[in-house]
Amino acid sequence: MAKYFYGYNIVGAGFALQGMSIGALFTYGVFFKEFQNEFGWSRAMISGASSLSFLIMGLVGILMGKLNDRTGPKRLVVASAISFGIGYLFMAYMQAPWHLYLLYGLFVGIGLGAHDVITLSTVARWFVRRRGLMTGIVKVGTGAGQLTIPLVATVLIAAYGWRTSYLIMGAALMLALVGIADPREMGLLPDGDAVPPEGVQAGSRDHGFDMKASFRTVQFWILCGVELIVLGSLLTIIVQIVPHAMDLGLSPVVAAGVLSTIGGVSMAGRLGMGAAIDRIGGKRALIICFIIIMCGFACLLAARSAWMLFLFAIIYGFAHGGFFTVMSPTVAELFGTASHGSLFGIVLFCGTIGGAIGPIMAGYTFDVTGSYHPMFLAMTGLLAIAFVLVFFLRPVKDVPASQP
User: Fold this and answer.
1) Tally of structural domains, the chain
2) pTM for the structure as a whole
3) What mean pLDDT comes out for the span 184-202?
4) Which of 33, 54, 255, 309 makes an SS bond possible with 352, Cβ 3.0 to 4.6 Å?
């Protein structure tokens, strides 16, 4: 009988961490109208806190990626969980815009800094042959959180109001995330092998380019540019799709259902593209995701009713999940795992720059024009540019062994 591989525990912990943290992130659109109704704040102002959170997430992600390369993930996950929980708990007492920017922009942003860099970089070290599939399984946790937690938040708001809902969510998130923060280094080889995979030196699971060598490659900066455009588009949809759906006449519960549909379908995208990348590689997987997402945006631009928005959510949701799964294995595929946390953290930071700009620009566009349509059209054009950039990706050859 084959010996059980501890790496599967890492995948399970990553699944739970992703589901809790990103599911909570998805609720911002659900609370969006509550802030408007109580405080009368503009959409650009409310969106700005989300943009700050994304930016902080990216900055902290670089630091956490570097620390994870050196010290491992456990303490980093605990620290981020505490920050995440504090942000949500004290949102219940918010009275002024600076409260929103401090609590959601800073504390929640710090908490989010660990969710992708730590979990996916750790999984990338535990698996080689099944790296894409295992990354996909971890990211299915994100889809599960996106599917369930926004609906739970909607029910809590209806029953207790938005302030009490934040108290409940903050306490639950802090306890749950700290409770699952137990990924450990076991001194094992990737995939549970008895001998190192090809290209990995005996006694070491880490190989590949260091940061300086990676910076000198065109491939790295193409990935950064693609991630900037893609993540900017994806995070804009996360924040603005519920208000947009309600503007088209959908009830709050149905509008939240559009968001949850994206999360539900994204699970298929995460798992499907995770398995695909092990077979076809990162470049082809990215091309497939781009084709699908641009079809989704075509539906969004034409959507005027509930069924069209749900059709958008189904098509877009698959690509959404695929994009969030493909990038980490692609970084490992091109540059190895020696500095994976640091490199993936920088790629993600470039994405969060887009994520910081996109939602606030969408909110400003609505405040000025009364419609999200111009922003959605601009995002479609930018995605087309990123699609072209992917074709310039080439395998990085002659990967130098990392030095101890």
Assistant:
1) 1
2) 0.71
3) 47
4) 54
